[in-house]
Design brief:
Oligomer: single chain
Radius of gyration: 19 Å
Shape: globular
Number of domains: 2
Number of strands: 13
Distance between the termini: 27 Å
Helix content: 10-25%
Order of helices and strands: EEHEHHEEHEEHEEEEEEH
Amino acid sequence: MQVYTLGEGTPEVAVVGAIHGDEPCGARAIERFLDEDPDVDRPAKLIVANERALERGVRYVDTDLNRCLPGDPESDQYEERLAHELMAEVRGCTALGIHSTVSYARPFANVACLDGRERGIVAHLPVEQVVDFTVVADGRSAELPGFVDIEAGHQGSAAAADNAYDCLVAFLQVTGVLPGDPPDPNPEFYEVTEPIYKEPGRTYHFRGENFERVAPGDRFADVDGDSLVADEEFWPVLMSDDGHDVLFGYRSTYHGPLSSLPPLDRTEATAESADEATDD
């Protein structure tokens, strides 16, 4: 794990790339940002997490780093030990995790147990959608307090690296690390309701588009050539033919623009808006 610290003092803001080694866009965005030798208004950490997997071009070495948080320093699994080290680095930080996907070309944000601080951040990232993964977030970075993830685009693409860089800069602006005004896109908000798992040995083909409504009765996929028909409406998220061995994707509910959500009261908001976030 490589940890770069910008500015003086103890960082309370962090960016984490290469949680998965086959998703290099975060590491590329961090490298690009560091090459610019930026001046910062408050300290921040930039972390390239799973260097070993990144060098090999694989998702992980022993186990999925983003499924074993908070980790175990005594484990014989490399990623479980690394997860413990990563948790120590981001503890007390508002953090952005950078990922990519095979299922969708444009960037979107992932959260879990959305609170005021996270809402104030995702409202000002250059993304079109925000997805709440609370129901399936066990062991993922998005579940950590003050942690927001993005899917930057297609895995391995130059566009994903560019999108990751844009999100990194906006995140550092909204958290007061960089000067300037972050974007204000008012993304659409979706809430995952359940995963759809693949049956072993069967071939799946997704016929729809992620984030586009599937109506009751719509044929949204084929399984071994047979139609898979929706019994109720949903919006697909991270759904693809071969993105995962056992997971086909997720069903979600669409709630409208983020700005239309009622005020949050599950936790005290530390950043209900960009202005409050930059006052930390």
